[in-house]
Amino acid sequence: MHLSPPLKMFHSSLCSEKSPWKGARRWLFYVMLSLMLGVLVLYSWFSPSWRPLLIQRDDNKTAVNTISPSHYIPSQFYVEYPYQYHFILDEPNRCRQESPFMVVMIPVAPQSKEARDIIRRTWGRENRVLGQLVSYFFLLGKSRIGNDAEPPDEQILNESKKHHDILQSNFLDSYKNLTIKTMVMLEWLSSHCPNTSYAMKIDSDTFLNVRNLVDMLLKAPRHDYMTGLVARGAAVLRDPTSKWFLSPNVFPEDSYPPYALGVGYVLSLDLPKRILEASKKVQAVYIEDVYMGLCMRHLGIQLTDPPRGGLFVVNMPSERTDCYFASVIVTLLHNSEQILDVWNAYETRPDC
Fold this sequence. Notes:
Pathway: Protein modification; protein glycosylation. Keywords: Glycoprotein, Glycosyltransferase, Golgi apparatus, Lipid metabolism, Membrane, Signal-anchor, Transferase, Transmembrane, Transmembrane helix. The chain has a domain of about 220 residues: Spore Coat Polysaccharide Biosynthesis Protein SpsA, Chain A (Alpha-Beta Complex). It is globular and about 95 Å long. Strand 3 and strand 4 form a beta hairpin. Strands 1, 2, 3, 4, 5, 6, 8 and 9 form an eight-stranded mixed sheet that branches. It has a three-stranded mixed sheet with strand order 7-11-10, covered by helices on one side. By secondary structure, it is of the alpha/beta class. The chain is built from ten helices and eleven strands.
């Protein structure tokens, strides 16, 4: 760059004046940079939105998560469990008083009253089957993030008073929190049903043949038992656009351990407490049925295949006989409203 003589003299003077301060300015720059980095580290440590990632685990200590349930979790893979959730609607004595052979737990969204009513009018009304008592409960989270002290919605409260089959906990009810929902279910079963032999978790848009289920369980083991549609060697989906994407940083293996598909599975009632203990050592991922499989592997317990194929069905055949629904235990449907048509076909079936 060409400078005129006066500008050359000004430039030379400026440079000579600046050089004594050069070292001091550089020192000040590094001090400021260090302060900024320190503030960033302190923010990331104390900010509630980051706390779920700061989970300490070892062989002797329970994982402690300090975040409140009212905050979102930044990771798309992990869920906030273990955590001390509590029930805002409960049936604290019913299972102990009834001592059913089997408890059927139906996770359902708080706003899905129609789905609950359909089940109550169809397979959920089968309380005494093959001489065994069966109890049904609907498991709900909260429909929105809010104060934990807020009372339940009036509609759900009235529904609970009428049917005595609602269990509602204070986690946010969402697809990403299905693992939380299942673990809260296990907590409830472990503490409320000491005289019950089996529990089933089943989706609300599913047909359940309770008679076939009870018949199978009357011949099943009472301990270390979990069955359903067992996936073996299922590939871990690495496509980020997939609903079930899991990063290699979270789960580096190429395939999952065996797990029972979440549409509907059964377990003996000695397992909930042990799975809850395993959850203290196994990081909780958002894919609920996979997480159950991970806990089972940690416990060293093998899943059991059903006594024959075709009892737990995800893809209902388009062409089927009138006796189809008499031959299955679980069939996933398109929606809960379809249960009404399927139930009518099941009740009016010929002698199968």
